[in-house]
Write a structure and sequence with these properties.
about 260 residues, AbiJ_NTD5, Abortive infection protein-like C-terminal domain-containing protein, Abi-like_C
Length: about 260
């Protein structure tokens, strides 16, 4: 049974939403929300919510309602993100106390993926953890899961860099489009020193790699139904390409 199937029952769906709200209100910090936003691809919604982080930080009475609004959004838009919450290190054991039947949606053997994030986590830290976790995912769950996760996290990272720099981006901008905008408009990527022309060619090669990663994620991973999935060697190639791109951009922007 999938989580989508499970939540077609209105009572089970409602019970799960309320159980998640209770555990999140009890356990989540602002850093947990930030990390989850980057890992799930919902950083724009979470950081753009007018009250979610603010009400948590100030201990306001409407925080529970803000959490409920966020959960309702996730249940409408992205059940994969809901599964990530169910498997969050701070939430899983408490959720299982409420409802043992949720154990069928708990991923086994992914302790490093679910480990608690350190305080002061930056967007770059989140991506680096996800890159490391992807290698573990390939060993435990197979390579295709890692490719989809990396695409989601890099997409959130590039978008956050644009927002930090004050660069306007479309809500539906793809990973490829975000990387192109960063190359063209981010201040630290405007001048690359004495070897500017050659390095621009390297960045153009990165752009082609980003385009390919976009296609691999859409057609060769579990992001969408497909009978022709990536093999292990090809998934490792995608992970290593993602790591190279992240390492360079992170070194340039400083986080």
């Amino acid at each position: 049974m999938t989580l989508d199937d499970y939540t077609t029952d209105p009572k089970k769906r409602g019970s799960l939403i309320l159980a998640l709200r209770r555990t999140i209100v009890s356990e989540f910090t602002a850093e947990d929300w930030k990390e989850f936003g980057y890992l799930s691809g919902h950083t724009e919604y979470i950081q753009g919510h007018k009250r979610l982080i603010r009400s948590l930080s100030w201990g306001d009475e409407d925080y529970g309602q803000c959490v409920l609004q966020t959960l309702e959004h996730l249940f409408r838009e992205d059940m994969v993100a809901v599964e990530q919450l169910i498997n969050h290190a701070k939430l899983t054991s408490l959720l299982l106390r409420d409802s043992a039947e949720l154990s069928i949606f708990v991923l086994s053997g992914l302790e490093s993926v679910k480990s608690e994030a350190p305080t002061g986590l930056s967007s770059g830290d989140v991506v680096l953890r996800a890159l490391n976790d992807a290698e573990h995912l390939m060993q435990v769950s197979g390579p295709v899961s890692a490719v989809d996760r990396l695409h989601t996290v890099l997409h959130g990272y590039f978008r956050s860099l644009c927002i930090e720099e004050g660069i306007a981006v479309a809500d539906d901008a793809s990973l490829t489009a975000l990387f192109k905008i960063l190359r063209q408009e981010h201040s630290v990527l405007q001048s690359l020193g004495s070897y500017d022309k050659d390095l621009v060619r390297v960045l153009q090669g990165f752009a082609q790699a980003i385009y390919a990663l976009n296609s691999l994620r859409n057609n060769g991973s579990v992001a969408h139904p497909s009978e022709d999935l990536l093999g292990e060697a090809e998934a490792h190639l995608a992970v290593n390409a993602s790591r190279t791109i992240f390492n360079y951009i992170s070194a340039k922007v400083g986080h």
